[in-house]
Design goal:
alpha+beta; 167 residues
Length: 167
């Protein structure tokens, strides 16, 4: 897409996988950026075990934000269906993690697994170079736009209904 942000492609991909006629076995979805690297053997099984049959969100330690933000996360299928993706409507690229953490808190089902390492190899951590791709999606205009969009969504009737339905 024109921004280079991943929200649209992430949501489109998730919606395709919701087609139970083609993909009936997907009960869990994971977001992981191309700058994430799973370090823990069996991280996927740990995510599934933590979610079980519950509606919710699970994440591990990214060695950057830790418990503070879920930069890579697992989400139950029902939430992906309700959101028609894995992040808030109108998102371009930023604040996925803030959204997901608040949603998990509001749903009262947010699990942090400190022993599951999914390293975030981000320039802020000094683990990657700030290249054109990072620079494009981290422009001030996207911070402003996505933050405003997220704030509006959190105060919307749509978000209140989502939380009411799945809490």
């Amino acid at each position: 897409n024109k921004t280079g942000g991943c929200a649209k492609s992430l949501n489109t991909g998730a919606v395709i996988l919701l087609d139970v006629t083609k993909y009936p076995l997907y009960d869990y979805f994971v977001f992981m950026g191309d700058d994430h690297l799973p370090r823990t053997q069996g991280w996927d099984k740990a995510f599934i075990q933590a979610l079980g049959q519950n509606t919710g969100i699970v994440y591990g330690d990214d060695l950057l934000q830790g418990n503070n933000l879920p930069t890579a996360f697992g989400m139950s299928r029902d939430l992906v269906e309700a959101l028609q993706g894995m992040t808030f409507p109108g998102c371009v690229h930023l604040f996925f993690d803030n959204f997901v953490k608040q949603l998990g808190l509001d749903l009262e089902y947010l699990k942090y697994l400190p022993d599951v390492i999914i390293e975030h190899l981000h320039p802020i951590a000094g683990k990657a170079e700030m290249d054109e791709g990072y620079a494009r999606v981290n422009q001030p205009k996207w911070y402003e736009q996505d933050l405003l969009t997220l704030q509006r969504y959190f105060t919307s009737a749509e978000y209140a209904e989502l939380v009411r339905k799945y809490r």
